Amino acid sequence: MLKLLHIENIAVVEKADIEFDSGLNVLTGETGAGKSIVIDALSAVTGARTSRELIRTGRDFAFVTAVFSSADDSWLTDNGFESDESGDVFISRKIMADGKSVCRINGAPVSATQLRDFGTTLLDIHGQNDGKKLLDEGAHLKYLDAFAGHFDVLSAYQTAYKKFKDKKAEIIKLSMDEAEKERRIDTLKYQIDEIEHAKLKIGESEELSSRRELLLNASKLTESVSSAFESLYGDENSGGAISLIANAQVELERAARYSDDLQAISERLNDLNYSAQDISDELRDFRERLDFAPGELDELEARLDILKRIERKYGNAEDALGHLERSREELSNIEDSANKLIRLEKELEACVADAIAIAEKLSKMRIDAASVLQKQVMNELSQLNMPGVAFLVEFENVTDEYGLCNTGKDEARFLMSANPGEAPGRINRVASGGELARIMLALKNVLIGDAETGSMVFDEIDTGVSGIAAQRVGEKLSKLALSKQVLCVTHLPQIAVMADAHFEISKSVSDGRTFTLVTKLDFEGRKNEIARLAGGEIITETALQSAEEQLKAAEDFKEKLEKLK
Questions:
Q1: What CATH number matches the domain at 2-128+436-441+455-564, 3.90.550.10, 3.40.50.300, 1.10.246.80, 3.10.20.740?
Q2: Is the entire prediction scored with pTM above 0.85?
Q3: What is the C-alpha to C-alpha distance for residues 91 and 44, in angstroms, rounded to an integer?
Q4: pLDDT digit string (tens) for 555-565?
Q5: CB atoms < 10 A from the CB of 3, how many?
Q6: Strands, E, within 115-218: which ranges?
Q7: How far apart are the first and last CA of the chain?
């Protein structure tokens, strides 16, 4: 149950706190006073999409907090939230001027998606345009499935249907025309032959590029390396650095016999001698590698050209080898397509048979559910001053391939006849605005049934309804409020008199700014508001007396309901 709604800076509402009661809570007020803003705030705080236009002019943010009791503890536990010590649930949403928002449940930050998921367990909001959804026959099957509750069978069918569609797509892809098939075979064979002849090795391009750099600079490298080698090792005319280091080391060894201080220096000089010899050996080996056969550079350049051509077409060696593997597989599949098509056609037959079998089962369940739905909706409508109404669910077979679509083999539409003797017609052609509102209310009641849903919110469901029909709608809401908290925005006195808690939404102007106020009315306040709803701006004693009589009659009706509970 919604206990408290706190609103800041939403449209013309600067700040408002509304403490709701159990039962039927009614919000009334002049057109444009801000009644639907309360619904907008409830939608926002339960995760609906919002926009920066919701923020009051001149403010940087809008903020909504709602406090609920008897919330779905299982959702909180499953999603890792701790319950408040009071047992209440506190949810809030702050909407920034840049369009971003911050959502919280019991103080913990959550995403808007999580808030929306939790919000569906707290509130069921029936908006002003929900009745118009009945005009969309594409939605009728969804209403029927929601009533039947056979979602496991529907899910199984949709899985089978997807399997059939995937198999069909695979066959279409394989069943290309012969000319296209030959062109593709030629392309694949050429690419396979080109990559295979290249005899690629991962890392070869880098290795050859390094070797090429050596060969291009071989003359300069040979001269420098030979000079360095001779400086270390010497030539036929003179000894090099190694010879001089060796002589120096011999002399120090002799001197070290007479001075221990020279022993460490002698050892270091010996290490230097070994290091110099190692370096000279490495220089000799490097110089030998610079000796290359005539034509090696040309061969290397040719090989690099091949590798570069492959890289331009297919990427590096690793990518090209991957392309080669995929091309071989595709070529094999195309060349074996005749055999594969036969196998796929058999698999498709099995998939279609499986989907049809589940679709038949689903269709029977829908027909059975439609019979029950028709009776329950007509019972509801009779209580809403439509006693002669006929409500039917009409089925047609899907005309898609194999008589199947994503929802099964059925198309469904709602038909109605508002008057005895008239043949039922499509709702989108024969229903008035008031009839749509009442049918939608009837469907809501039937679809919800005894389910443990959150509070129900109705935003101006009285469109096109007046007189006795409006009274019946008010009575229906009052009955509904015996088991669920109901919030209703209305313009009709017949509905307002049924309220267990009545809130007036009023608008005022101060310092050039518009402000909306929310006031919970006492009995006298309710009398005045009922009189205004019935008679307009001029409220006479007769109007007040009539309002009081209506309130008394409503209380009598509710007392009878309580006794029948």
A1: 3.40.50.300
A2: no
A3: 11
A4: 999 888 888 76
A5: 17
A6: 123-126
A7: 20
